[in-house]
Design the sequence.
C-alpha cells in the first residue's frame, strides 16, 4: 500500500482504512512524524506469565498434579 492522505477531524481523530477496531501505540518522533505500532493489551499477570519460564513450568506442573487446587469436584 502506498502513501495515503489522512485527515484529522475536529476531535483529532483519523480513519485508517482497512484497520477497523484495532489498537495502536502512537509515538511522535522528533521530526514530527507519527509512528503507529499494532498493540495488544494484556494484564500484568499475563505479562508476568509470558516473560517467566519458571512461572510457566510451575503452573504447568500444578495443573497436572493429582493434588492440584486447579481441579474441583462437582457436587
Sequence:
Amino acid at each position: 500500500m502506498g502513501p495515503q492522505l489522512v485527515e484529522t477531524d475536529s476531535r483529532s481523530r483519523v480513519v485508517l482504512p482497512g484497520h477497523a477496531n484495532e489498537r495502536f501505540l502512537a509515538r511522535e518522533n522528533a521530526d514530527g512524524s507519527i509512528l503507529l505500532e499494532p498493540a495488544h493489551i494484556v494484564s500484568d499477570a499475563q505479562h508476568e506469565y509470558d516473560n517467566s519460564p519458571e512461572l510457566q513450568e510451575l503452573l504447568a506442573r500444578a495443573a497436572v498434579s493429582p493434588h492440584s487446587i486447579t481441579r474441583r469436584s462437582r457436587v
